Please model this.
Amino acid sequence: MLVIENLNKTFELGGGTFKRAISDLNLIAPEGDFITMVGSNGAGKSTLLNLIAGVYPADSGSIKINGTDISTFPEHKRAKFIGRVFQDPMMGTAGTMTIEENLAMAIKRGERRGFSLGVKGKRTEFRHILKELDLDLDERLKDQVKLLSGGQRQALTLMMATLTTPKLLLLDEHTAALDPKTAARIITLTNNIVAENQLTVLMVTHNLKQALEVGNRTIMMHDGEIVLDLKGREREQTSVERLLEAFSRVKKERFLDDRALLA
Ligand SMILES: Nc1ncnc2c1ncn2[C@@H]1O[C@H](COP(=O)(O)OP(=O)(O)OP(=O)(O)O)[C@@H](O)[C@H]1O
Ligand SMILES: [Mg+2]
Model:
């Protein structure tokens, strides 16, 4: 279970200006919740994921996973129980290392690095994992990852992020850089891995249809806040059009609020 309370993050932009990227944000995600997250550019979605993963610290507030406040933990310590996949297929894997070395590294994630990655005894297991991906990677264990296509690389990143069954999986537009067919394949793979391991997931997407179809809950962010939280019947009855309407309504209301404040 993920519990976020009163989370705040302001960036200093230079020249004495500031951007409040996350504003008093609260979120409770029970174990097994698969939340899709939407919101326009700059809404704070990636910042929220970065704060959870520990890329940078929050200004205030707490982030608890299964009761443990992780907000002061360094990033590598959080990596032990948080898996993540980014938009850029180049980011989640080490390009100059081989597929098997990457997989071995994923098993050791969050642990102190030893002298050996212990690849040798694990080749059969790795081959099995890659065969399941059905992307012709099972005979390429010794290939450098930089030789793979974006889709193959993203599939590998997803496998690596979930190999040690994280308590939380963070996906930040992880299919955005892929062609439609490969993107659909990665979404199917995501669904399968999440269902098999009953993972708790936060998935950012700009695809509203996908946001309503994948997972069991959809939140919308705007200006560092969660402005809509859809689940159950309400979500089932929400169409892409209604989500878009809600989106423009929120924007309009916020704008009017700002005007009222200035008046
Ligand atoms: N490291 C940073 N330094 C300064 N400002 C930042 C930094 N990271 C994010 N911001 C600002 O914080 C706000 C939220 O950015 P964020 O990347 O979280 O948005 P997002 O919802 O992920 O948008 P997108 O859909 O474009 O990915 C933006 O105004 C952005 O410019
Ligand atoms: Mg983003």
Remarks:
- The chain has a mean pLDDT of 90.
- Residues 240-262 form the longest helix (23 residues).
- The first strand starts at residue 2 and ends at 14.
- Residues 2-97+148-229 form a domain with the Rossmann fold fold (CATH 3.40.50.300).
